[in-house]
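Our preliminary data section would be incomplete without showing what the modeling component actually yields. Below, a chain of 557 amino acids is followed by its predicted structure, encoded as tokens that our downstream tools consume directly.
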Amino acid sequence: MDPHYDAQDVARCDLCEISIVQSYCDFCHVNLCKPCIGEHISDDYSTKHIIVPFQQRRSTPIYPKCKTHQKKSCKLQCKDCNIFLCIDCLASEQHNKEHKLSKLEEVFHQKKDHIHRDKEEIKEELLPFYEEIATEITNQIANLDVDYQKFTTQLSKHREELHKETDNAMDQRGKEIDENKLKHLSILTKHLEEIKQLQSLMQESLHNLNEMEDSNEVTPTIRYSSKNQEFSKLPPKVIVSMPKFIPKPIEKEELCRLIGKLTPLSTTLEERVFTAKKPNTSVRELLDEPEVLNTIKTGHEELRSVTCLYEEEIWTSGLTTADIKCFNTQGVLQKTIKTKSGKRPNDIAVYSDGALVYSDWSQGTVYKVKNDQTEEIIRLQGWRPIQLCVTSSGDLLVTMYSDDTTQSKVVRYSGSTVKQTIQFDHDGQLLYSGNYCLIKYINENRNLDICMADRGAGAVVVVNQAGKFRFRYTGPPSSTKKEPFKPWGITTDSQSRILTSDCDNHCIHVLDVNGHFLRYIDNCDLEYPTGLCVDKDDSLFVCEGLKGNVRKIGYLK
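Predicted structure:
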């Protein structure tokens, strides 16, 4: 066997090293071809060899020897005494027959299943959760220079006003800033090290679980004790409040006191709770032939957006009017809201409590409307808001472009507070097109991926919850459509499928959670589909841009 190609070579017999392996000794852990089985057994007749087909290797439990009856193997366990027993132990009546017994084989396989579940939980859920925590802390550390530079700049402006006699006092305050930064960095670095240490422990545990899963030794398997409960107790979240520089009016007396002060760092602990992901047990397949269930005539001349929390309230907005209209599923107009500026909204979304939110790119603002009261929740400087998405956690995702129209990004808000900015990939390259294109509809998938229909780039761009690039969909491998793929609206369903409208080709692309093309929805006489949304029952609502209609489509079984 060439060692350079051993991963691609077939398994060979460990004795002759030539013939292809056909059997396996589950006691000695040796690969065997048929001619070598006899030689292997004859080498040591005192050993109870266990020859099994190679495909079933490491499947036979190796039972512990009885301490009382040396030639017997223990295949039972006393639940009351917590000891292993052989058949002779029971026959000799030395053990209380009223005690409860369990078969070691059953316990062995139960523990094997537990080991496998623990391994999968660490690999699929716990480690990614800790990775997100580590990424969050790393981003905080990376942003420290920018955050603290604001204080340095503010301090420099105040320095100019106080002239030369304030230099010594200003230098003292500058040292305080640096000291706070070092403390801040130390706190976050320490917390990151703690997280990484826990990650290392889980990796070590995962390695041990892999070895135990491959092992057929009963004793260590039986004695295995899960650490997952311990890992599930997440460390508290360290929240460090930024200090504030508070300048005072310039006076020549007591300059050091009057310069102002930097508030000290304050550190609080916020409890983290690990919640295991619940599998989606209700699988809904795609219909062979999607069908139009209803058509709502909105009256919008150029319909752009549709959103709904419940089927009874279907909100719509267009390109030529400030009106945001709400219809029921029968197409009856329920209410109309006008934007505060009198300009058209760029997009609309709905919070879980039924409050409407809309973006006004002309004013650089985002408004929330609840109980007929309009409240400004976001006002941007240097950027313009475009499309919106309310996430499952209640955050608001806003796509936006810079005033000079060269860059685009996604910003996550909690209320009016920025929680996350997504703009660059791991190589520092822009994730989204920067040309002047107002169409960047966005949606959060059930696995918390953030999916954008970037019309300017002719692609659906998907990142994970932490903002790391996952994939870019630019159309199916072989397209039957005449026009280039330029997505418009985007939504996701309960099966984590991604649906995006292909306006120029009058159809909708259906993708799986990993961006693989599944099918078109193109048999419903759609004309210039734009905005999309899916309600809680997986009914698809599609805007027909020029007709001003919303089509309700059933596409799942």
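The CA atoms of residues 182 and 496 lie 43 Å apart. The first helix runs from residue 34 to 43. Preliminary results of this kind motivate Aim 1 of the renewal.
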